[in-house]
Amino acid sequence: MDVSDAGFHKIYKKNKHQGLEILYDRYKKYVYTLAYRYAGNKEDAMDLTQEVFVSIFKSLDNFKEELSILPWVKRITVNKCLNFLRDRKEAISLNQTIDGDLEIQDLICSPETTESKVQYFDTKQALDAAIHKLSSEERMAVILRHMKGMKYEDIARTMDVPLGTLKTLLHRGRKTIKESMVKDGIWEV
Asked: Which of 13, 25, 153, 168 has its CA 20 to 30 A from that of 146?
């Protein structure tokens, strides 16, 4: 069911359970995708998604009806993801996925491993490592712009920074990623 924000609030006031289902159905894919970009694996992304929706559901009664829901959901998601990164200990999981469904342990054991898959994996690993080396603000800006395809104005609003600051964060983030990729021999100058 696709309803406007105003329609959602009316439904939520009449039937909280139905309103929560609508909210979850509307934003679950967005929240999971963003959480996956930050976490890098399905399990942590699912945990983050659950944490985001628990926070949303707990604070929904205090949400101002005149505001749009999407920026609020984005802000909660980004904050949960940043907290996760701050608290996370660096560890490589053999269950970490590559390409959406292939796990590292499958790649190691697979007789079908080709040079192109290995090169793709190396490039993806180098890119992910370069992104994770960015400051949290630069990483958030790069992910929201290049992986979520958000407009500059929307990102600035979500991150609560001036547009000029956002552009600077993106410029520095892209430059740092490029330098890292050149250093790793992935990007030729």
From this structure: 25
pLDDT digits (tens, 9 = 90+) for 107-155: 444 444 444 554 566 677 778 888 888 898 999 898 888 888 889 999 9
- Domain spanning 92-189, CATH architecture: Orthogonal Bundle (1.10)
**pLDDT tens digit string along 78-112?**
888 888 877 764 444 444 554 455 554 454 444 44
Beta bridge partners of 103: 97
CATH architecture of 1-91: Orthogonal Bundle (1.10)
Domain residue limits, the chain: 1-91, 92-189
- Average pLDDT in the chain: 77
36/81 Cα distance (integer angstroms)? 9
Place of tokens 């985001």: 52
Contact 16, 126 (CB under 8 A): no
Q: Which residue has the tokens 């491993």?
A: 113
Q: In which element (H, E) is residue 97 found?
A: strand 97-98
The counts of H helices and E strands in the chain are 9, 2
Give all strands (DSSP E) within 119-181, no chain letters.
none
